[in-house]
Amino acid sequence: MEFQIPEKVQYIIDTLINNGSTAYAVGGCVRDMILGKNPEDWDITTSAKPHEVKRIFRRTVDTGIVHGTVTVLLDKDHFEVTTYRLDGVYEDNRHPKEVSFTGDLKEDLRRRDFTINAMAYNHADGIIDVFGGMDDLNNGLVRCVGDAKERFDEDALRLLRAVRFSAQLDFQIEEDTKEAIKAKAELLRNISAERIRTELTKLLVSDNPDRLRLLYELGITKVILPEFDKMMVTEQKNIHHAYSVGEHTIKTLSAVAGTISENRFLPQERCILRWTMLLHDIDKPSTITMGKDGQNHFYGHQEKGALTARRILKDLKFDNETLEAVVHLVRWHDYRFALTPIGIRKATAKIGKEYMELLFEVNYADISGKNPKNNKEKFTQLEEARRLYKEMIAKNECVSLKELQISGKDLIVAGLKPGRRMGLILNRLLDAVIEDPSLNDKETLLDMANKMKN
Question: Whole-model pTM above 0.90?
Answer without folding.
Answer: yes
